[in-house]
C-alpha cells in the first residue's frame, strides 16, 4: 500500500496532479500550516475523515516510521502568516479537539493571539475584533481559548518563558481590527490613533452623532488600568485639545475619518460597563490596533495615489475595502500588467471536480489552486 501511495505522490501526470489537489484540500480541512507530507497534527484519523485514503496512508507511514520528504516546496509550500504555528505549542489532543473552531476563527498561528510585545495572551474581546474573525454573538470565552490559556500562560495572562523565547527577535504581529460600519450607524465606543491629542497617541470616544459623525471624547486613567481592563471616563473639559465643539450636548466632541476608527463596544455593550467605567481591553493592545488601522489607511491612500486611471473600474477596488490584502492584490496586478495578452491566460486553474455553475453568481467550488503558466517568463 505504501509503495503504491509513493508512486501516486510522484506521478507526473493527471494522477499526481489530482493527488496534489486533494492533499492541499485536506491540509486546509485539517487546518495545518505545514504540508501533510511533513507533519500531521493527529495521532489518529478524525472520525469525519475515517474513510479518507490519503489521510490513512499518511498515518500508516508515520506509524511505521516512514518519513516522506517534500522535495518541491513550490508545489507544497508552508503557509505563511506567522512565525509559530499553533500546532507547534499544543499537543495533538488539543488540536484534534479544537481544530474546527480554530478554522472557523481563521486562527492558525500563535502570533495571532498574543500581544505585540510577545508577553501576554490577547484578551478574548481583543481576538473578537480582528478583521478576519467572523462576527459572532458569542461573548463568553470559547473552550479553545480557555484551554490554550492554561497551556501557554503562567497566570492566565502572561506567557510562559518557554513560549516567549520561541520568538527571538520581536516582529510586528498586530492584525488589522474590524472596521467601523458606517452604514449600520451604531453609537459604538471607538478608538483611533492621533498623536496630536495626547501623549498616549490613542483617543477613545463614543459616537454621538450619526448623520454627522460626532464623537464624545473619553479619557483613559492609566493609574486604574490593569492587564485585563482599561478605565475610561468622559472628558468634561471645554478647553481640551481634542474639543472641536461640534455639539452642545457634550463638553468635548470631535470628528474623525470613520475608516480609521476601531470599534471596541456596541452601544448596548457600552451601557453595561457604565457602572464601573472598565472595558475588557488592555490599553496597549488598543493602541496597537488603532495604530495598525491608521498605518493601513495611510498606506492605502498612498497606494491609491499612484494607481493609474485605468484602474478606476478595477474589480479589486470595487469589491475590497482599503486593507493590506487589497494593496497586495493591486501590486500583483500591476506586476502582471505587462504580460496582458488576450490570446493567452497567465494563470492555470486546477480543481477537484466540484466546480458548478461556472460564470454565474451561484458558482461554487470546494477546492482549487492557480499557478502561473509556463508560457510566461514570470518569476514564480
UniProtKB/TrEMBL annotation:
Protein name: Uncharacterized protein
Species this chain originates from: Rhizophagus irregularis
Lineage: Eukaryota, Fungi, Fungi incertae sedis, Mucoromycota, Glomeromycotina
Amino acid at each position: 500500500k505504501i509503495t503504491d501511495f509513493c508512486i501516486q505522490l510522484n506521478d507526473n501526470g493527471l494522477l499526481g496532479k489530482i493527488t496534489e489537489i486533494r492533499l492541499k484540500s485536506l491540509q486546509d480541512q485539517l487546518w495545518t500550516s505545514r504540508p501533510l507530507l511533513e507533519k500531521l497534527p493527529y495521532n489518529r484519523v478524525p472520525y469525519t475523515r475515517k474513510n479518507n485514503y490519503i489521510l490513512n496512508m499518511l498515518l500508516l507511514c508515520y506509524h511505521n516510521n516512514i518519513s516522506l520528504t517534500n522535495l518541491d516546496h513550490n508545489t507544497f509550500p508552508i503557509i505563511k502568516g506567522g512565525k509559530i504555528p499553533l500546532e507547534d505549542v499544543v499537543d495533538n489532543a488539543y488540536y484534534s479537539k479544537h481544530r474546527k473552531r480554530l478554522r472557523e476563527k481563521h486562527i492558525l498561528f500563535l502570533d495571532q493571539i498574543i500581544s505585540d510585545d510577545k508577553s501576554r495572551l490577547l484578551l478574548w474581546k481583543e481576538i473578537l475584533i480582528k478583521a478576519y474573525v467572523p462576527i459572532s454573538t458569542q461573548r463568553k470565552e470559547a473552550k479553545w481559548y480557555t484551554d490554550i490559556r492554561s497551556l501557554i500562560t503562567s497566570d492566565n495572562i502572561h506567557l510562559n518563558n518557554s513560549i516567549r523565547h520561541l520568538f527571538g527577535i520581536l516582529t510586528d504581529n498586530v492584525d488589522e481590527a474590524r472596521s467601523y460600519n458606517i452604514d449600520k450607524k451604531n453609537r459604538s465606543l471607538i478608538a483611533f490613533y492621533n498623536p496630536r491629542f495626547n501623549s498616549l497617541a490613542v483617543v477613545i470616544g463614543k459616537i454621538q452623532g450619526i448623520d454627522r459623525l460626532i464623537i464624545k471624547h473619553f479619557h483613559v486613567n492609566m493609574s486604574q488600568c490593569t492587564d485585563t481592563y482599561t478605565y475610561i471616563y468622559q472628558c468634561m473639559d471645554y478647553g481640551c485639545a481634542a474639543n472641536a465643539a461640534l455639539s452642545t450636548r457634550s463638553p468635548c466632541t470631535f470628528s474623525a475619518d470613520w475608516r480609521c476608527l476601531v470599534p471596541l463596544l456596541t452601544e448596548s455593550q457600552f451601557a453595561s460597563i457604565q457602572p464601573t467605567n472598565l472595558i475588557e481591553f488592555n490599553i496597549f493592545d488598543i493602541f496597537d490596533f488603532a495604530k495598525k488601522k491608521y498605518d493601513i489607511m495611510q498606506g492605502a491612500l498612498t497606494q491609491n495615489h499612484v494607481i493609474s486611471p485605468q484602474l478606476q473600474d478595477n474589480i479589486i477596488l470595487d469589491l475590497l475595502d482599503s486593507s493590506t490584502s487589497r494593496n497586495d492584490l493591486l501590486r500583483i496586478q500591476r506586476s502582471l500588467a505587462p504580460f496582458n495578452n488576450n490570446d493567452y491566460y497567465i494563470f492555470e486553474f486546477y480543481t477537484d471536480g466540484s466546480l458548478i455553475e461556472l460564470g454565474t453568481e451561484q458558482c461554487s467550488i470546494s477546492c482549487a489552486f492557480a499557478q502561473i503558466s509556463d508560457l510566461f517568463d514570470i518569476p514564480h
